[in-house]
Design brief:
Helix content is about 70%, strand content about 0%. With about 220 residues, it is mainly alpha-helical. It folds into 2 domains: about 1-125, no CATH class; about 140-215, no CATH class. The radius of gyration is 17 Å and the shape is globular.
């Protein structure tokens, strides 16, 4: 399913104001299309949604949790400013709460959506099934992507931070990526570990080696 179809499916589940939710989606599409985005753009949103759909049968049991995960995908990088990256998830969560509550979405779905968005800041999730685990793994699908796509992702992130000198970027980026290799598993769900784990470890190792040569 395409991104707009998944949004419409989620909107039917949450039963909010149809016109209000359409306006929310249009605003989100504008945000995801901002010119300063290199990786965190509509392509990333589509990849997260496709990964969620792949994980849905084994990790998400009910329609409300599925709707919350879909909405979280749409909102999780809605605010993306490389100058203040520590605030992106908090501000994206605030945007989700305001927009969804204002469109009459059930508070339980709003709370779930916001918790998923906020968890994407640290990617620290203990669950191995359910919406938290599924959204965590879908957002990190790119780490286990085919080599060409992963390398393109690395280039896209570097373009977003083009103003940062190579050595500073390499140090900061390594600090973000290395902890994923230090975990027992990059992913939380059984499906993602079977399908994406080995590739993710190969990709991360290769990128960390490249970053080490720049620092």
């Amino acid at each position: 399913m395409k991104r707009d179809e998944l949004w419409e499916e989620a909107a039917r589940v949450v039963r909010g104001d149809v016109r209000g939710l359409l306006s929310v989606r249009e605003d989100l599409e504008r945000r995801w299309s901002q010119p300063h985005r290199g990786y965190h753009d509509l392509r990333h949103l589509d990849e997260v949604l496709r990964a969620l759909a792949e994980l849905r049968p084994s990790a998400i049991e009910n329609d409300r949790d599925w709707a919350g995960a879909v909405l979280a995908a749409w909102f999780h990088d809605a605010v993306y400013d490389v100058e203040t990256p520590a605030d992106n998830e908090r501000l994206s969560s605030q945007l989700a709460r305001t927009a969804l509550s204002g469109s009459g979405v059930d508070r339980r779905v709003v709370d779930l959506t916001c918790s998923l968005v906020e968890a994407s800041q640290t990617h620290e999730v203990s669950e191995t099934t359910g919406p938290q685990a599924a959204f965590h793994d879908a957002d990190l699908w790119i780490l286990g992507a085919p080599t060409e796509r992963f390398d393109g992702y690395c280039d896209d992130v570097r373009r977003e931070y083009a103003s940062v000198p190579d050595d500073a970027f390499a140090t900061g980026r390594s600090a973000i990526l290395r902890p994923f290799l230090e975990r027992g598993s990059v992913y939380r769900t059984d499906h993602a570990r079977r399908r994406w784990e080995a590739s993710a470890r190969d990709n991360l190792g290769r990128e960390l080696d490249r970053l080490a040569r720049r620092s």
